[in-house]
Design goal:
Two copies of one chain form a homodimer. Chain A contains eight helices and seven strands. About 8% of the residues of chain A have low confidence. Chain A is an alpha/beta fold. At the A-B interface, strand 7 and helix 8 of A face strand 7 and helix 8 of B.
């Protein structure tokens, strides 16, 4: 049973790397699919789920089913979301042969000995990648985009701290940390795949 | 011109990884050779040079040539050593096609766009590796060995801060960070070599 998790800085191309790696291995790929599943399970709105999963505990108004509802301060649907996340990611992990993007999967699936990747890059490189990919970035200045990038990564750090002992972005949490600043992601997939295969050979029982 | 630098935590197997990588590429390998060269250039004792390069500024008594000499407080041979180190590593870098272990080579050779690796591992794994390799470790308790390991890494961080803007152990300073905890180093050399070759293809002008 082989599991690869990809954590990443916003704009580092981690998602592309994960998708290409899944294709190269012939593995299932899980990214936003996880959010959809959590929303189904908890009957909460996808946007809200996404916000909890990406930003940690949140207090903003929530759609439940089709209804707008202001959540009283004492109610913590975010906990439900994080529990559902844990459950769904564990189910995915049990099936194996998959690549999972973000969502503290490295920590949640620890007992399955996944191969854990962290993808990062220089701010300059991340900025360039954002400009290439996103429509939204067109209306943001460099300064605004950098602030947004940093904010998203800060939230990832914070959320992972809620549910995980493995610190987001800390090398001890990963098997390999890849700097994509000067790298064409497509070009490194094949050697990366071979590298990971060697890792899995060390755990033949799984 | 291809340069690979390998920084490493003590006990992580970084030296083995670097040596095997040099062999796989057919590159020159520089490790303690650098210390010998600095000692020749500065006419300082090799043990002293080694201590400065590994531990930063030092105030202990120095052999100069064959003579013991207590160095006055104001005299700073360590600066000479660090300048000589910079010079020698630059000379090595200019020749190219080499693997250099430690000694802030990633920072000193920045303008040559080396491929910079950081090798690390869990404390448990480093402890096991130390026990396998070193005779000295046999007489140290686990606690003492861990203290020694941490001390050496602390010194590496401190020394690199003296001569480099690139922080030792910080992911921004490296192209790839490799966790050797669950890895047989020999087995990953071939895919690692291919990965690095892809990196060098991005800089064909060098």
């Amino acid at each position: 049973m082989k599991i690869i998790t990809v954590s990443r800085e916003f704009g580092s191309g981690g998602r592309e790397l994960g998708k290409r790696l899944a294709d190269a291995f012939g593995f299932s790929y899980y990214d936003k699919e996880i959010i959809t599943e959590i929303a189904k399970k908890t009957e909460l709105d996808e946007n809200y789920v996404s916000s909890v999963v990406e930003n940690g505990v949140s207090a903003f108004p929530v759609h439940i089913g089709q209804t707008f509802a202001y959540i009283p301060y004492t109610y913590q649907p975010s906990v439900d979301v994080l529990v559902a996340q844990q459950k769904i990611i564990t189910e995915i992990g049990k099936k194996g042969n998959c690549v999972i993007i973000g969502r503290s999967a490295n920590s949640i699936l620890d007992k399955f000995s996944p191969f854990n990747i962290f993808v990062y890059a220089s701010e300059k490189s991340k900025l360039a990648r954002c400009r290439q990919n996103a429509r939204e970035s067109e209306i943001l200045s460099d300064k605004e985009l950098i602030r947004k990038m940093r904010g998203i990564d800060r939230n990832r750090l914070r959320t992972s701290a809620l549910i995980s002992e493995r610190k987001w972005g800390d090398k001890a949490s990963y098997d390999l940390m890849i700097n994509t600043s000067d790298v064409e992601i497509k070009s490194i997939i094949q050697p990366l795949k071979e590298y990971i295969e060697k890792y899995f050979e060390n755990f033949p029982e799984k």
